[in-house]
Each structure stands twice: as structure tokens, then as C-alpha cells.
Amino acid sequence: MANDSSRQQIHFLDALRALAAWLVVWDHLVCVWPASNGIAVPIADWVEANVNQPLGIIQSFGWFGVCLFFLISGFVITHVSLREDAVAFAIKRVFRIYPMLIVAVLLSLLLNPAARAQATSESLLTNILLVNYWMHPQVVLVGVAWTLVIEVLFYALILVTYPLARRPMLRVAALLAFVGAAIAAARGFGAAFFLFAASAAYVPYLIAGQILYLLLYRRSLSLGAAIALAALTYAVLLMGLRAIHSAFLPLENSYLTSFAWALAVFLMAWHLGDRLRPGRAVQWLATTSYSVYLLHGIVGFFMLEWLTPRLGYGMALALAIAAIGGAVLLVHYGIERPTLAMGHRLAARASPG
After folding, report:
1. Distance CA 302, CA 306 (A)
2. Does an H or E element contain 195, and which?
């Protein structure tokens, strides 16, 4: 069990969560959208030339932000799984993910003509349930939802391994064994299973956060055990990159390099502990990070496409960010918080005892 000082250090996650969400916004609205529309953004070019390329950080900090989210999720989900019974864990995760996902899918249909063109009753249902990512051909109505598939898969694996909760090394090893088996069999069971294995290959990024939690916060792993599990995690990550995500294996386009930087930032934030305790503004950014992550592309791309020809990119970007903020406020207080509270109430009623 962690001591009082380590309990306080969990506040550092708020700063990282806020940073991760807005790094993804930076990538999509300041880098990806202008580049795809032939618009030069000097500050983005400067960051790319002087930060991203020298450090080997790919996708203009977008993947770096996703890596932070995965590390945070692995850390936090392991924490809550040791505090909640399986029923409460499952109910709360459903209410964490799906109400906001439904909002994002419906908003995408409203604002994105390409999504409307693909929308059928089947594609709506499969996107809301996230199984669209394991179907061939894929129909994607919310671009960033691919990471939610990985989150939900991790939740399911945590739920299945609840009997091993008090045997952390065995639990982590079992998760990695499952992922390794899925990758090994990726091309043996058709297109749908390959897509499932492609999602599973990302789970070790969350397992890395789980190992950090067990070592640094829970202190239920020795340093030697943590190193052994980290080596096994690296081996499974490398296996997935070689077998499935091979485009991201070379150093010049490396998933692992950006992940290493995200891991370094995570460990630095942990070390700072309460010195990184966020103020109210950062806490609010952290609290709304899921809403920002889901809605920024839907609202932001719509605003940029509508306003840039009329006002120019700079003004359009400012108004797009304001619109994202407004949408996040509305949805966070109108949908996200009430449904989370409902999930907590249902979990309390359904849990044994």
C-alpha cells in the first residue's frame, strides 16, 4: 500500500491529462488540417523543424498525446480496479465511455457530410458499440474513436483478470500473453480478426502505465519484477510493430521513440509530485479532456472549413477553439457529468454488499 506522499502524487495526472488532450488538438487543428488544405502555419513548421524532427517525435505531438493518455489510463484503471468490485468497475466504465461516444457520433452526423454519406442503421450501431473497427470494410464516423477501442479492450482484459488482482505480476503477464497470442495469430483467422489483433497490439502501451502504478504507487512489484515485466512489454510491443504496424517501426517514423519521450514526461511528472499540483484552470482542462478529445475534430474541422475561406485561417482557428470550448462546456455539464453520476449510482446499487 502506498504511503501518504505517494497518494498525493496522483494529482500529477491532471496536468498530464490536460496536456495530452490539447496536444492532440494542436496536431489536428494546427498541423494536420492546414497541411491537408495547403495552408502554411509558421509556428507549426518551426516546432516540427526544431522540436519534433530532432527528438524523433512523430505526428506533430499527436501520437505523443495519445501515449500520455494510454499511460494515464493504464495507471488509473489499475488503481480503480483494486478499489472497486468487478460489477462496479464494469458499470462505471460503460458510463464513462459510451454516453459521450453516442453524442460524438450524432454530432459527427450533423456536422460532417462525409460521415452522413456513410451513415446507415448498421454503421451507426457498430460505431456506437465500437465494433466497427473490427469489421471489414471499416466505416468510421468519429476519427479519434480508434483509441477508445483499445481502451475498452483493456477494460475487458482487466475485468477478465479480476481473480488475479492480488497477484499483480501474474496478472500483467497474463495480459501480455493474451496480446502476444493475438498478434501471433493475426493473419490466421481472416480480416476481422486481423483488425482485432491490430487493436490488441496497442494494449501494451496501457500495460506500461499499469506497471508504473504497481511499482511507483501501489508498490506491489519489486524493481526486479517491474524490469522483467517492462522487458516483456517491450518485446510484445516490438512483436506488434513488426507483424502489424510495421510502418511505425523505423526510427524516422517510430512509435517507440515518441512513446519513450511520453514515458520520460510521465516519470518526470511523477517525480515532481505535489509540486505539479494543478490549479483550477488545469483541473478543469483535465476534467473536460475526454470531451475535448472526442469533440475537437468534429467541431474544429467544421468551423475551419466553414470560416477559413471567409476570414482566413488564423481567425478561423481562434473561433474554432472558442466553439470547441462552448461545445465542451455544454456537453460536459449537460451529458458527461450527469451520466457519470448515474453510473456511480447504479454501480453502488448493483455492487454486492
Report:
1. 6
2. helix 190-200
pLDDT, tens only, 103-124: 999 999 999 999 999 999 999 9
What range defines the domain where residue 88 resides?
A: 4-350
Q: How large is the greatest C-alpha to C-alpha distance in the chain, in angstroms?
A: 61
The residue type at 325: G
What pTM does this model have? 0.94
Which is nearest to 101 in space by CA: 330, 294, 246, 285?
294
Q: Which three cell numbers stand for residue 10?
A: 496522483
Which candidate, 61, 22, 64, places its Cα nearest to that of 292?
22
* Domains: count for the chain: 1
Taking only the tens place, the pLDDT of each residue in 4-18 is 333 445 788 999 999
Reference 340, options 144, 99, 151; nearest CA is: 99
Nearest to 339 by CA among 75, 11, 101: 101
Distance CA 21, CA 13 (A): 12
231 CB neighbour count, 10 Å cutoff: 10
